[in-house]
Amino acid sequence: MTANLTKQTQFDAIIIGGGACGLMCAVQAGFLGKRTLVLEKNDKVGAKILISGGGRCNYTNLYATHKQFISQNEHFSRSSLAQWTVDDTVTFFETYGIEGKEKTLGQLFPVSDKAKDVVNVFTLLCDDLAQEIWCDAEVTAVEQTADGFTVSLERHGKQQTLSTPKVVIASGGLPIPKMGATDFGMRTARKFGMLVTETTPALVPLTITGKDQPWYEKLSGNSVFCRVWNDRVSFEENILFTHWGLSGPAILQISSYWKPGESIYIDLLPGKDIVEMILAEREQNGKKMLLAYLSGLFTRKFADALSDYVPAEKNLASLTKTELEDISILIHEFKVKPAGTKGYDKAEVMTGGVDTNELSSKTLESKKIPGLFFGGECVDVTGWLGGYNFQWAWASGFVIAQNL
Ligand SMILES: Cc1cc2nc3c(=O)[nH]c(=O)nc-3n(C[C@H](O)[C@H](O)[C@H](O)COP(=O)(O)OP(=O)(O)OC[C@H]3O[C@@H](n4cnc5c(N)ncnc54)[C@H](O)[C@@H]3O)c2cc1C
């Protein structure tokens, strides 16, 4: 058996994680003439970039500000997002051949619709800038030494330990464990005595169980444009009914703000008033059945399902005041009490992570452990759906690179 000796490296920093944050950090460090080594446990870099946005990669959002990020310190991301702006992201990708197109709500995708193009930008640049990438290299521990750190890893079944003056932890969050997600960032922070806030799956479908579940199941596949809200936030986008509950962009958005046991509310006709609409319609056509009227507003299947809660067989003229009030509550304040979420297997991101109080917002360096940096999803900064999470990953990677 060979001894695992610590190997002195010539790198200015070791970056743990070859995802969005780690790759941007390596490239930006390269632009500044610094040499980094990226250690990635998967057999290729950028696995989550490749599957993002349905394989098309929604790589930023034109309207991103710190307000679309959830964190115990809602101002923490401000500095990074100001140091690396959305314009910087757009220009960076344009410079390396990726034109963006806005799909909806500021969401920018490559014109090619290929997430692979985004990853290629980084691998080619890392090559040009002599930034080294080792894949199949899982980091098992980081230790502090008198003049920096040692990083222990397993590569192709062999253990080795490298020394380095600085370490960047860009190892991502907990979602999609089968794609290599680990708790390494949070575990390492704790090991160094840093606080970590509670993590939960976010941008994740919500499940419905019990007596209500069959109602959702029969609507499976129906998508409705809605406003979904709770007492803290509201989103207007589509919701999708599934056989186990609710998904779709508006549900993913609210899931990041949902806590077990809470209800969420759905306005099925945002910006409209169903009672006023019915009253206007019955002036013209009082004999119309409520079911027929609802079928004109939604799909027939959806109207049929709503009939479980309203007197659908009555004509509009005969609806009483109380019935109209009930219809209004059903349409504008549809209450849903989710049983839970689909968990980390189906979440796009997580809330929580390395406590922002532990990091300098200007450099993302640990306040307790100089030379140790945290960026990307492992930090307690979680973006909305729509390209915000990549904007944070690029921005935090850039900021760290400036301070290596
Ligand atoms: C299905 C899906 C779709 C998404 N779509 C979008 C989208 O369109 N737009 C958007 O903005 N966001 C999207 N996201 C979120 C986005 O992918 C993440 O926010 C982003 O990838 C986080 O970047 P990161 O660099 O922090 O982490 P990651 O990109 O997850 O990279 C971390 C890397 O570290 C590696 N790693 C972990 N532990 C170790 C270890 N011990 N040693 C070595 N390597 C390690 C992992 O294998 C991984 O490659 C999506 C997420 C998912 C799951």
TrEMBL record:
Cofactors that this protein relies on: FAD
Pfam family, any one: HI0933_like
Domain (RsdA/BaiN/AoA(So)-like insert) ranges: 201-349
Signal sequence region: none
Entry keyword set: FAD, Flavoprotein
Domain RsdA/BaiN/AoA(So)-like Rossmann fold-like: 12-402
Descriptive protein name: NAD(P)/FAD-dependent oxidoreductase
Organism: Mucilaginibacter gilvus
